[in-house]
Amino acid sequence: MTNHWNDFANSDCVMIIGCNPAENHPISFKWITKAQDKGAKLIVIDPRFTRSAAKADLYVRLRPGTDIALMGGLINYIIENNLYHKDYVANYTNAAFVVNKDFAFQDGLFSGFDKAKRAYNPETWSYELDADKKPVTDPTLTNPRCVFQLLKNFYSRYTPEMVAGVTGVSKEQLLELAAVYAATGAPGKAGALLYAMGGTQHTTGVQIIRGYTILQQLLGNMGMPGGGINALRGENNVQGSTDMALLFNIVPGYMAIPSEAAHPTLKDYLDKETPKASFWINKPKFFVSLLKAFWGEAATPDNQFAYDYLPKIGKGYEGSGYSWIPLFEAMNEGSIKGMLVWGMNPAVSAPNLNQAYSALDKLDWLAAFDLWETDTSVFWKRPGAKTKDIKTEVFLFPAADSMEKEGSVSNSGRWIQWRYQAVKPHGDAQSDLWYANRLGLELKKLYQDDPKAVCPDPIVRLNWNYGESPDVHLVAKEINGYTVADKKQLANFLGLKDDGSTAGGCWIYSGYYPGPDKKDNKAAARDKKDPTGLGLYPGWAFAWPVNRRIIYNRCSLDPQGQPWNKDKALFAWDPAAKTWKNFDVPDFKWIDPATKVHVGPEESAKAPFLMLPEGKSRLFVPGGLCKEGPLPEHYEALECPFVNPMSAQQSNPVMKVWKSEMDRVAQVGDPKYPIIATTFRVTEHWQAGAMTRNLTWQAEMMPEMFVEISLSLAKAKGIKAGDWVRVKSIRGEVMARANVTHRVAPFCCGKPGFSSTVEMVALPWHFGFAGLTTGGPNPRENYAANQLAPMVGDANTMIPEYKVFLVDVQKV
Amino acid sequence: MGITRRTFIKGLGSGITAVGLSEVILVRSGWAGAVHPAKTKDTQVTTSICPFCGVGCGLIANTRGGKLINVEGDPDHPINQGSLCSKGQAVFEVVTSPRRLKKVRYRAPGSALWEEKSLDWAMTTLAQRVKATRDAAFITKSATGVPVNRTEALASIGGASINNEECYLISKLMRSLGVVYLEHQARL
Fold it and tell me: Where do the structural domains in chain A lie, given as residue ranges?
């Protein structure tokens, strides 16, 4: 989130699209309701009439996977009707930048497409440079090749009629939606955009989110209290686990993992990964400090700070990296032999579960650390498993829960908050900190003692001194960063150095533990004061980075430094005294660190987005950062009953389509699977269910797997409410009770003149085959919805397309 | 019924007197009969953060003699201000459930049963498995001679429901082992 939960109350209009906070983030709805009480409008856009929709001023039923077309329609309306925030767009976005003269777009494809490789050469997706290699700009926004004109031209194809044909949203409703949300484009008004997996779990997920951000940029909603682009994250520390880089492509603090092709040496890495401008010019300080945190005394200037110890990635499985889908493809092929599972339940949450089960069967060993016996830890006795033939050795370790240990978690609004230990763990249970530490100690010993060990140094020389019973505060202090010579904690990341004199495990967390004592732990701060009344709570916990509560907050001010909305000021520039008064931590250059002289607003107006080299937010993404192109274009989901009305390009032209035996995909308009399916969550259960299906209260409140079916589909199939039905995709099937409801409805879509009506069903995905309740009465049945979902991902992130696939429904 | 606590207090006379009296009178008896001392009386209080979604609601845990007595929303917490959702209300059961694992379980290849094992045996054995798997499939150098120090035979997944410091240690340990198949819930 650029903003945070309390901040929703500051909004003039909240747009909920691809999430359902009333159900899945219930307490956050307190702050949405507060905004509504003050007169804000609430818009909910969702294929299902959700609990959030029940509270909306305007509900829009959108065909799943068509968000880009809807955003295109809104962008077109806003530009055509001159409703964008002109000063904001001209000053704070790249609207004025002139684009390469060879950049083009035709019939669904951008310039540079290589059909054989299913990839683009993004050379033409670039800014035009002047003689000094600086981007050419046109502040009048009239140059036909400037970003603004390209954007206008590009989205002019998204007419209300076309958008209705793609999305199923009527022209009248689209115009109503556009008028309500475009009102936030008035200077001083703020619209908050809230999304979650409904936006990301598509083969076009990244471009869907890009569509949301273009809308927010045009309306000047970034950096504003009550605005921003807000991903509502679903696990209590999924923000923190991402920050700590439990992902193949990054190291802690959002720096790329080195690759063998691009980064053979530390110099290669720093040269290629450090941009010439933006705050990222400091990357060498963050990266070298990370190496020092990892390898301590063994990281010296003479050995590139132990850079060789850090693994360099290759091309990954079938050239597609090492993310979730290739990981499970590689496992099924038999090349992954052992796997550690830290509080996760992929036997319910993975896509195309039959593929996942087949892959798990091939492991030599699996070690799970969990509170419960999860579906994953007993995959070898799942319904239909040939237990005797499964040769996987399984270790299941009892883990301590959140009240049985101490440490911090980062919420969706980037607040790092401290948990104290209330009670001791059950029996032999230990914290994951203890397990990771003990495993490290055991391995260090094994490698030290084995003269034939392969490449032992990265482990033997690992900086790993947290004690037998690890001290969480020591780990926290390492993450924060310290000077190596005197072990003094750093106040913030400005103290990090690239010469090996500092160590820091995750630069963006620097400042959360700036002193030696427990009282210095800012994650534990509990000052309840809210001096501005804007809900910033600067003394409560610590928001990364540097306790900044709203990111890009320079954009809450006009170029002269005055707040767009005087009632919601984050800063005050006094032009006479030439000083700033700050209520949040500035996300811009406001003071000269050497002279302590305040820097006037003119300078920061030039670069309100410090992390980008051009200093402006990107309506148009240059280079190949987004693999499908610099502007979001609508493509259909891989499994889809409709031909793409927008262009001849049916689906994402650059996504990877897997060809293994288990990766079956229904054809476009497949008559055997004529119904769209989507998945969702309910408030009583959590994610893959192990945490709630084992609780008596939750199991009693929501005991059974069900499928939401429209009245018309129920009638056509002779299904009554409460009947057990079988939902089948080309990959698998699941039993569910029919919930015949107005919450879902068919969609009438297609190219104008060629439209047809297609039903949609929706399934909760929490259920499975293990635990106190599995989802149904039959112990030989697996009630996991993801048996149906396809194993195909977004071209950039490889997040699987759980939100749209094709099924049939049959009465049992 | 018909009489609320407020009208009762008001009936006692001036506000100041009422507050004083209410403390004396209402501690022991209420309109529904005798009021038992709050179960949280004489307990130790610690704060925590809810283990479910990403909102980060504050919790209060009351313990007595090392035993959890009660869990409720933290009224001082700026986000939830004391309230909790259906899942948050159930945290007490997460901590106290008899279904929680207490011992290491081990399943031998081909077996249909769990066996109970000691923690020490399991940790030592797991470390041996990790080392054997890594060393059998370790790539020291690329085809062009670049030191790459990675293994593509080990994977580690998960971490979105554990603490930052735990995630960091796992991240650090896995990198030191050369693990590149490192993924978690954020990818799904």
Answer: 5-231, 239-314+471-520, 317-449, 675-811
